[in-house]
Amino acid sequence: MAEEIKKILEDIKKLKEIEDVAKTKRKVLEEKLFSIVERPIDGKPVWLSDEAKIVWRTEAKINQRAGRIWLEKNPELSKRIFTVTVKPKITEISRLERTLELGDVPVWLKDFEDLKQEIKIEEKPQLQFIKEEVEENE
Fold first, then answer.
1. Which pLDDT band holds residue 4 (cuts at 50, 70, 90)?
2. What is the pLDDT of residue 136?
């Protein structure tokens, strides 16, 4: 039984190594692809084939330490902006920006501009493969 376990562990280790190499190669190829394909002005996905497209995703990030400081400094604003893991919510940031444009700003929103300066918003391309749905004969 010990020999069987040892063999299984060796096979798992080999597969893990293959996965790591494949992941690295995929990342390099995707970076090469993203450097060639330009983002359209309208921001819509670029279809590369019938089953592959590039979409651009917007991400918001903040240093965890800075996020925790903001949680203590202005909890009311922070609970709206951040997820439980202190990841900024882009939709909420946009909503609060529109609220500021209307005027009549709540007290807790006074620190919003300062907090926004610490949040980094990045747009990253992502390659997606579309799976064809297999129709079942009934």
1. very high
2. 52
Is the model more confident about 93 or about 84? 93
Q: How many CB atoms lie within 10 A of CB 28?
A: 10
Phi, psi of 38 (to 5 degrees): -90, 145
Parse the chain into domains and list their residue ranges.
1-36, 58-123
Please report where in the chains the tokens 């203590």 appear, as a residue.
Answer: 72
Indicate the residue type of 61. K
This prediction has a pTM of 0.60
Q: Is a pLDDT exceeding 70 seen at residue 132?
A: no
| Angstrom distance (rounded) from CA 48 to CA 102 | 42
DSSP code string of the chain = -HHHHHHHHHHHHHHHHHHHHHHHHHHHHHHHHHHHSPPPTT---EE-SSSEEEEEEEEEE--HHHHHHHHHH-HHHHHHHB-TTS-B-HHHHHHHHHHHHHS---GGGGGHHHHHHH-EEEEEEEEEEPPPPPPPP-
